[in-house]
Amino acid sequence: MAEIHTTASGVEKFDHIYCLGYQVNHEDWSPFKRVNYLRQTFLDRSYDVDVDRLRLVTEAYKKHEKESKKLQCAYAFENILLNTKLYIYPEDLILGEIAAPAKAAPIYPEFSVDWIIDEILHSPFEERAHDQFYIRNDEERKEIVELCRYWQGKTVEDIINSRLEEEQTKGSQLGKKIFQTNVYHYAGVGHLAIDYGKLMKVGYNGLINEAKEKLNKLDKKDPYYGDKRDFYNALIIMHEAAKKYILRYANLSEEYASKEENLVRKQELEQMAKNCYEIAGEPPKTFWQALQLFNIATTLIQIEGNGHSISYGRMDQWLYEFYEKDINEKRITKEFALELLEVQYVKMNNPTKLKDKGTVVVRNGRGFGGESLTIGGVDRDGNDVTNDLTILMLEASAHTRMMNPWVCVRMHENTPYELKVKTVECIRAGYGHPKIFNDTSAIKAMLRKGMTLEEARDYCVVGCVEPDLPGKEYGWHDAAYVNTAKMMEMVVNGGRCLDCGPHCMRWAKCGALGKQLGPNTGSLETYKSFEEVLESVDKQFAYWTDQMCSSMNIIDLAHRERKPLPYVSAFYEDCIESGKDLTEGGAKYNGIGPQASGIATCADSLATIKQLMFDEKRFTGKELLQAIKDNWVGHEKLYALVNSSKVHHYGNDDDYADDLFKFMFECYCCHIRGRKTTRGGEFSPGVYSVNANVGMGLFTNASLDGRKVGEAISDNMGPVHTDGGSHDISGPTAIVNSVAKVDHSLASNGTLLNLRFPQEAVAGIEGRDNLISFIEEYISKKGMHVQFNIMSSATMRAAQKKPELYKDMLVRVAGYSAYFVELGKPLQKDLIQRTELHF
After folding, report:
1. Residue 362: what pLDDT?
2. Looking at the whole model, is its pTM more than 0.85?
3. Catalytic hit among 425, 466, 711, 822
4. Catalytic residue among 464, 500, 602, 669
5. What is the mean pLDDT of residues 61-74?
């Protein structure tokens, strides 16, 4: 591919080398003393639970019990913003938290409280094996329980539990965990990107005036007059409260400045106060003010709705006009712009979310989660849009090296060479950022969701890998995790869970073992042909996706009924135009995106069945079934064979196995896409597990890919790796060729590919160029997403032995990065077992 160059530049040379992998006892990475201080201060703080939001929201709901739910939400939001304690931290340049101190989790009782009460009383957050949270004292512990009891019977979860039937719950996290909806069952939805560009143009006053204009034009002949009236009034109350909240920060910053003796810091505080005064209602005028408004607006979305993955859109695009103007007018230097970005990056890690113990088994990590920042790509006309901020945002990432933001680089056939090099130098530094998205496949996926070409080209990334249209799409991405390996268990055993017998103490207390769970579509003891096996897969997937999708629609309606979102709805033009809240279908595009896990586990299981049972006839179906019922005990030769290269495996550019992966991929997608949502949109399939493959594996019996009970199922789009060995043995090019045999755009909610290279594999200029060429090849073959861990198994094992030396070592888990030493042992094991690749 010919090299295409850009005039965009950062502070450093585009080919500046940061380092190769994580360095123990490293020096500070940022050139800015302030940033290194803020970063270390963050790392030194504990993760706490804060009661402030819980007190204020409960107080407001008690006071306004007779109001509509929209107005109750508005008054609660107002009460929080006018009364929550504010924080200004030393050296900080950007103001705004989530109604809690930095790194402390507020409580959102509107969604669910039973698990909070139960865990405080019986499974304290601070006693978890990982993802611990700390409550300050016993008085606050008692207060949280008392306040939460008021909410019992009034939450989103309460409605959901009353409306789901046994057939839906038996396969969910409440039953056998064939699919898990607990992300939105117990918490907010999020997973959206607002139109930051519009906010920067009109400010809060502009949004309020739009709502007032629509309110004044409402016709009482409209049968939805009352709903629309409450929506506009709630929106106005909440955005007026946002203005007052910003002014509270302005006043506090002035107060700090009046007491500050250091002249430089005094001037900073005065400027921070001025920034807040100017953006309280009006649009920002400067780069610094734009970042300040961005931070306030984003944290208020989190205060309102609890949902994670509040993504930042195409930040190098909507922020660029402020940067360009300030640079041209010599108001700031490029170095100060970079420092501001780095301060903001560190601050993005402050929001923290308390999750139930079931969720943290599936997904480790204590950050709020999902804060993707998209850079690069093409504009609505198809032209490359790389600019200075594109490069600066990568430099800021390399200098801060924290969990957030999740930097996403959009690439295409005309991506400039300098951006490719800068991206790869960040990847080689070994902190798990950035991840790479292919415009060709992602845009095609957006077109499948019914968007115009111009809209599709403007996609950003929400959460881990989900393509989303800012300010237009409320996609309920990441809506459920589907354990396809558990569905395969139904296929091989007549719609029943396997009884692992005396070898499996893990399942000894499970009353459902051996009982009918799904439809009896045949078993390995009855199938006469491989075609019958594939037909059974299709029938099981049809049944279980029916249960899951119908459950998701019930959950969706529960959110609409109990927790509308007027504040964030204002950032969606279609919501203001129609008078409909996001939860009512006010956005232009209204999807639900569940994602499949374990596709390769299923594909390799099918390969075992096809090859050993039907093609070679070396084993009967009864023998294969007994082997996994026995957890492979007493079947050691078969276990070794299944985990060897003598059996076809996905990930080796082997059509025999890859065609089965393609079948599984397409089977899942076809059973999801096109289903209708309650908000007038359609379901959108994703094929990624994040790290849920580890938690799902804990509750999954042995499988014919060579897994034993409790081992992780395959992750995302990746090949199988079991305790018996990795199934991909032919190198990275073979993996790419296997992955590229499916049409990624069919998974319009995203796909995810993890790859791991040890440091020495990408060392030197040759290693860098090899990685660039590899990425170019992947893009040309139309894979949608790829991300890298540059880390050896030896490094991770060293971190397990001496965690105190590796406290800030980030690893790419899946769609997100996390501190390795904070992860649970099963997830650490899964990361270590991923195949080390070499060119």
Report:
1. 61
2. yes
3. 466
4. 464
5. 98
